[in-house]
Write a structure and sequence with these properties.
single chain; alpha/beta; OB fold (Dihydrolipoamide Acetyltransferase, E2P); Rossmann fold; 3 domains; six-stranded mixed sheet; 13 strands; binds guanosine-5'-triphosphate; binds magnesium ion; binds zinc ion
Length: 333
């Protein structure tokens, strides 16, 4: 069911078409039928009241209809668009269609206001900086949970390889991260957006899909994006240092023609909250715990008598991540 205010929409139509102010139940049916006859478009970007959409292959600017009060569209959403009534007007979005997938986050684990990062994407690629893997993998562990909840695939990209290429210990850490996540079927690509290393492999990962990039500020999402979509020319931070720079301020989707892909650059965030999730649900979204073969009902594998989990069955770093997230969600709940 599209998220719309049918009654308000009817009012607007009555005004538009000078319909008799007649309220009957089949007006709702008619309003829905009319919506179904309208074109569908895909949201590429939002900037306050303006919504850029892809309407039958053309990038046009639309606006939310007055009837959409309170309804929110996000990048990637499919919407129904009513044509502009006058030449100087913009097409109006009158409905947001149900989502196939949605990646949401909250400000922290206590907050439960869900913010949509991207709707209807096939895949999220979490970008990590090779010289800051601890923070990056903690972020990745959270996004893997959110992607599992929201029904999209997840992958990782360890970027800035050039910064650690000469450091054997750091390179061993990069390899350990690749192995840890590939073991749970999360593809990991290793790149340097600066030198171009690994970009072909990253391109293959995103080819033919709708993929969003997420990650801390300054990890190189926009530079990677510009490399994959050369005509996009997104703003990239001037220096290679971190410090909560937040160069990208809004999510935006671009077509990477050579890859037949739609790629979404998103603003870096400091934290990726999972406030919408109950602590006991977490276990469902750690594949290695879900597939443990523990047959206790609703087992969280945290000391229940008869639990099948024994030390060594699960990667210790991922196990720590599970316990840490669980504790954080318990504090929030
Ligand atoms: N050495 C090196 N620097 C890189 C690489 N990728 C990006 N950078 C630099 O890192 C800085 C941040 O890059 P951005 O692409 O702006 O980072 P971002 O992830 O988009 O950041 P936000 O938009 O704030 O979320 C810039 O100065 C880039 O030039 C890389 O592979 N190696
Ligand atoms: Mg950016
Ligand atoms: Zn168990």
């Amino acid at each position: 069911m599209p998220r719309i205010d049918i009654e308000a929409l009817e009012d607007e139509w009555e005004e538009d078409h000078h319909l008799l102010a007649r309220r009957s139940r089949d007006l709702s049916v008619k309003a829905r039928q009319r919506i179904e006859q309208l074109d569908t478009a895909r949201v590429l970007g939002l900037d306050r009241g303006r919504v850029t959409v892809d309407l039958n292959g053309e990038v046009v600017e639309a606006a939310l209809a007055g009837t959409m009060r309170g309804a929110k569209a996000a990048v990637g959403d499919w919407v129904r668009v009513r044509p502009a009534k006058r030449d100087d007007d913009r097409p109006r979005i009158v409905a947001v269609l149900d989502r196939d997938s949605v990646l949401t986050r909250t400000a922290d684990d206590v907050d439960d206001e869900e913010r949509v990062v991207v709707a209807n994407a096939d895949q999220i690629v979490v970008v990590l900086a090779a010289d800051y893997l601890d923070g990056g993998t903690r972020f990745l562990d959270r996004v893997l949970v959110a992607a599992s909840v929201g029904g999209l695939d997840a992958a990782a990209c360890v970027n800035k390889l050039d910064l650690v290429a000469d450091d054997d210990a750091a390179m061993a850490e990069v390899r350990a991260v690749v192995d840890r996540y590939e073991a749970i079927d999360v593809p990991v690509r290793v790149t340097s957006a600066l030198t171009g290393e690994g970009l072909d492999e990253l391109g293959l990962l995103v080819a033919g899909t709708w993929t969003a990039f997420a990650g801390h500020s300054g990890v190189g999402k926009s530079l990677l994006f510009n490399r994959l979509v050369p005509d996009a020319d997104h703003r990239v931070a001037a220096t290679g240092r971190y410090g909560g720079r937040h160069t990208t301020v809004a999510a935006w989707a671009w077509h990477a023609e050579a890859l037949d892909a739609w790629l979404v650059d998103t603003p870096g965030v400091r934290s990726f909250g999972l406030g919408g999730l109950a602590p006991d649900q977490l276990v469902e979204h750690f594949p290695e715990l879900r597939d443990l073969g523990c047959h206790l009902d609703d087992c969280t594998h945290t000391g229940e008598p008869g639990c099948r989990l024994t030390p060594g069955m699960v990667d210790p770093t991922r196990w720590e991540a599970y316990l840490r997230l669980r504790a954080s969600l318990q504090e929030g709940g």
